[in-house]
Amino acid sequence: METTHRVYTEDAREMDAVADDSVDLVVTSPPYPMIEMWDDLFAGQDDDVRDALAAENGDRAFSLMHDQLDAVWDELVRVLAPGGVACVNVGDATRNLDEFRVYPNHARVLSALTDRGLHPLPEILWRKPTNSTAKFMGSGTLPPNAYVTLEHEYVLVVRNGPRRTFEPNDTERYASAFFWEERNRWFSDLWTDVAGELQPMESGGRDRSAAYPFEIPYRLVNMYSTYGDTVLDPFWGTGTTTVAAMCAARNSIGYELDDRLVDEFDASIGDVEAQSRRVAEERLDAHRAYANETDDDLGYDATNYDFRVRTKAERDARLYAVADVERDDDAYHVTHESV
User: Fold this and answer.
1) At 13, phi and psi to the nearest 5?
2) Tell me: the pLDDT tens digits for 130-184?
């Protein structure tokens, strides 16, 4: 199996290289409005953002920042195929300008996506790990002026119209099946285990990072796409979604304004072969452990592996690892081998 991965150092508000209705899945984590680390990025696109922040007009700054994201959502709707799914990882922001308050990024983004005709599906909350022993803000242990700490982010899930249809017994779809116990864990609306053993490649010397854990895009790619599909990340960052697509044997497209991040990705891309094999082998080992320990009725022999599975749909599941990555001027070309 071969996949192709393209990264454009261009503005995702004009994704001219991506054809209408050509993307099967979007997995992305945009810069979060009203988080200070992203102020310069938003202000660099619109001087009014800097003026609003200087005037401590949080509502106006919040609105102006989201106006910039809205232009990307316009393009997302254009390129997303009928039945395609978009997963947007976003966190709310707390900030003290004229007063301390929360800025509900997740609600604003979801509203923008549904206003553009995308249909909302159940969303996912995932809890970020924290080492803080002083999680409260405000007046500490004295009521009523302390504030809860934001320790979760949202994965908003929307679909472009009715769900996709497939030919009966579609080979690629059945090969893309996940295991029963993975389904039960992944399709929960609360993820508390995403800071586990699966780690992203090191990104070098990035001086700002909003990268989300590799496990999040990797799960989403497996949950909402099949082999042969194309995954888009319009806020590419350190390339976490591309790595997930490579490990999951899907094609991908990314847009990133900072060409330094693409250079850093180039320097570390050799790590993806070992990472993809480790990811696949850990999934297979986890299923073998489940099969050995469960009291469930595992009624079917897997076609490609030495274990049994619970459902008929799982029988033809096949996992892949990256065997080789070649880089030319246009793309990364990845060869995969079954594990």
Assistant:
1) -75, -10
2) 545 555 566 667 888 888 888 899 999 999 999 999 999 999 999 999 999 999 9
Report the first-to-last Cα separation within the chain, whole angstroms: 12
Task: Round to whole Å and give the CA distance between 196 and 223.
Answer: 18
Chain centre to alpha carbon of residue 275:
17
pTM of the model: 0.93
Strands 93-96 and 320-327: unpaired
Distance CA 66, CA 277 (A): 39
Architecture of domain 2-338 in this structure: 3-Layer(aba) Sandwich (3.40)
pLDDT digits (tens, 9 = 90+) for 259-286: 999 999 999 999 999 999 999 999 999 9
Separation between Cα atoms, residue 152 and residue 90, nearest integer Å: 10
**For residues 308 and 291, is the Cβ–Cβ distance under 8 A?**
yes
Q: In what order do the strands lie in the sheet with 119-127?
A: 190-191, 119-127, 152-159, 80-90, 23-28, 230-233, 251-255, 2-8, 332-338, 320-327
Taking a C-beta distance cutoff of 8 angstroms, is the pair 255, 233 a contact?
A: yes
Structure tokens of 234? 């319009």
Cα 227 from Cα 120, distance rounded (Å): 24
Domain ranges of the chain: 2-338
